[in-house]
Design goal:
Length: 132
């Protein structure tokens, strides 16, 4: 029990690491019971039909935003270090989570949920935020 107040708690890994650094007994006395799958924390997408030349310019600008002081301030507000271009497949773990959630809401308990039943996202290359 953490300070004899609770048997378990839900925290981010970053929060747990920070807590353990500030109070080493936390890291020694507590253990991770479960972790969630890695998910994309944020993203930007282009709608179908968005002009390709503008997509390319936006992608180039977005992936350089971390190189300027103003860009770093914006990224700090969104709690990320940089943006990078990624295929739509980076969303698979989030889609799996949504599928699992839907199954739980519908009373089914199928393990190993697949995103095959969901329509594929119609997106051009996506940008994802990289957390520190």
């Amino acid at each position: 029990m953490f300070f004899h107040k609770a048997d378990a708690c839900l925290v981010t890994l970053k929060g747990f690491k920070t807590m353990s650094e500030l109070n080493p007994q936390v890291g020694r006395q507590l253990r991770v019971l479960a972790t969630s799958p890695e998910l994309v924390p944020s993203g930007f997408f282009f709608r179908t039909g968005y002009p390709e030349a503008q997509q390319k310019q936006c992608l180039a600008d977005f992936t350089r935003v971390h190189t300027t002081a103003t860009g770093q301030q914006i990224l700090t507000v969104f709690q990320t270090e940089r943006l990078e271009e990624c295929p739509a497949s980076v969303l698979d773990s989030a889609l799996d989570l949504l599928t699992r959630h839907e199954q739980l809401l519908n009373g089914t308990n199928v393990t190993g949920a697949s995103v095959a039943s969901l329509p594929p996202p119609e997106v051009a290359p996506a940008l994802k935020g990289i957390k520190p």
